[in-house]
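Dock iron/sulfur cluster; give full complex structure.
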Amino acid sequence: MSAEAQVKQIEMVRRQLSRESAEALNKIEKDFPDNPKSMDYFYDLYRRVHCEGEAPHGDKKVIGTTCVQVPEELIYAVGAVPVRLCNGSHTFDQLGAEFMPAKSCSLVKATLGMLSSEVASWLDQGGDIVNVTTCDQKTKAGRLMEEAGYRVHHLELPPSKESEAARTYWQSNVNGFARSLESVTGHKITRNGLRDAIVRVGRAQQAYRRLHRLRMSPLAPILGKDVFLVTNAYFFDDIDSWTDAVEVLNDEIERRCEEGFGAAQRRAPRILFTGSPPIFPNLKLPTLIEQSGAVIVADETCSANRMLYDVVNVDEWQLYDMVDALADRALKPCTCPIFVSDEDRKRRLLELARTFAVDGVVYQAFSGCQVFEMEQRSISRFLADEGIPSLYVETDYSPDDLGQLSTRIEAFIESLKARRRRK
Amino acid sequence: MNRFRAFINGADIRRFRFWVQLGFFFLLVYGGYFMINLGQSLPTFSCGFNQPGRAGVCYLLPLQHQTHIPWDSIISGRGLGILTGLLTFLAWLFVFNKAWCGYACPLGTIQDWMTSLRQKLGIRYATYNLDWFTRLKKIKYILLILLIVIPFLMANSVAGLPKLPDDMGTPFCKICPARMVIPAMTGDFSQWTVDFSTGTAAAMTGLGMLVLGIFFVGGFINKRFFCFFCPMSALHSLFSKVALLKLRKDGSKCTRCGDCYRACDMQIREIADDVESTTLVKDDCMMCFKCVAACPEEGALKASFMNIPIYESTEAGFFKRMTKRGKK
Ligand code: SF4
Ligand code: SF4
Ligand code: SF4
Ligand code: SF4
Ligand code: SF4
């Protein structure tokens, strides 16, 4: 391709992308009445970054990450900013199809598509990425990123988290990652630096947990589509501004709870969302659910709950203990389906379903995401045994299946409503 | 009431433990100077060799004396002595359970001070490899059996074998580091010697000195190094199920995040991984409740007394402690 054609293509992709983002954002923002005032911070953020292509971190050193398993505190400690690269755009999904087999997962394709297109403003010149060897597709994608000219640290994750051997293996890999961060950035990780980073991330998690807890309220005070937008912003926003904005939102939500104001109808079925992560602009399924009269009150996905909920405990505030503690926090509570056992995921779903008085579970699997597809049966059976109805939805980033999806979702929600009436 | 609860649950357990431990240390090591006497059956290493400072005697000392008893006199008054000793020991244990270890034992406290020192110096702790560890931990039961059986074999000949020599008396005390460490706290170093009067005595006291060395080195790099092998802890664990003070877990609230496991000085993995048991006092547990303080899930772990929760894991408490400690 000539240089000129390339520029043209980039321009085209950029336009398509910003159109896609604007449409999604419009839907999320304008199609629903009574959005919290403090959501404006987030709508505006997406408008600037996704629609207008603003670089979120200016000239700071950015390190791209591809999974919640990366202990981002380490990245902050070397004075860089972590940006999660997992991508949700159909435009990039199509671009990425070039690098991956036809039947692979939209998320991985979109991430690769973005990295190969030079459109996204996420990464800086250095192009440093830490890729975690989770599922096969992500593992091999790490290699493809290298081929595309990025400098990739392959962070090896054990396929099971039960054994002590897996734990120590992972801890030593995380320590290795810390050293490689130091050499890449030329910054030493100091005790104070890491401690501050831990407290900083802790503050963000505390804000998230408050939001999470507020959603337990019998009258849902905020819609799930907004919460997904909020947690998604954590991928790329400045962490301190994000935390402040979430706390402002929390205050507003709390007021709503006190005033008895609901974001959804009193009788709206309460949904627990699980499976492949909804990432902006692909909030297709969450939006559909809430347009159909249900409300998402909790989730078990790695673009929201799994990313922000679990907190680190440090026993001895020295480097040696902090790094290991971060490794533990990433591995031990993780409910990702790439691990052998699904016990923890089941327990987590059950606990969420109980504490959030959930009426039904919606399980999203991106077609091509084997692990989520493979866990579906056992999870659905488990939920059924516990008397919790669930709906399994296989989908991808393309808008083609919207019609068919909305019929299924509506039917499911109707059945939940009927079930409620019977009770 | 709720406010009070929240205050307690937000407490910094380290600070609390530090002061309680210090208090008990003074009480048990120097209480004798103030005429305090808590009896002969304390379930903790209030070492009997620390005279006159001791405020009571470690139960293992009378136990080793009492089992030095011929068969036929068991049903006599001496047998009764054994019984009352045991019952008093059990009464103490019944109330505070293994918290004697986490809060009262002077030898445990000294180990914690060594840990703080290591921490201040920024030296990493050592941990055991889990396989090895599971095997090594059994030593404490072997020691417990020996310390009962050896004195008994001194007084009785079993299966026609000759009796053990008399200088095997109080065999565990001979190798117990507390015998040297605790009296030293009152300036008495008389135990820091090898007794050459007989061959057995020399061997046993020599071994004792060796254990003392290991105690200091091990205790410096390993948290609560000696406690893993302590026969007192073994004796506790035989009865700890029925005690009033309990460590409870609600597995449904546990995310198995491992935060409690990280905090546990005794490397008790089950505290995080076991989501079935509702009471989780493992044999090594010292009921320090550091795990409760480390847990971010509401009510997943709690210390309870007669089924009344006294200290509970809460999200607010967790973050309060994190921000406070992360600031220093
Ligand atoms: S699904 Fe699992 S492997 Fe993939 S990004 Fe999420 S947590 Fe990581
Ligand atoms: S030496 Fe040890 S076992 Fe013997 S009385 Fe002292 S503390 Fe107890
Ligand atoms: S286990 Fe430790 S704390 Fe408990 S009695 Fe033995 S030495 Fe003391
Ligand atoms: S800290 Fe709490 S939630 Fe985490 S593993 Fe321990 S008991 Fe479970
Ligand atoms: S399990 Fe808890 S109470 Fe027991 S020793 Fe470990 S941290 Fe302390």
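Observed: Chain B touches chain A at residues 119, 122, 124-125, 130, 251-263, 269, 272, 275, 290, 294-296, 315, 318-319, 322-323, 325-328 (CB under 8 Å).
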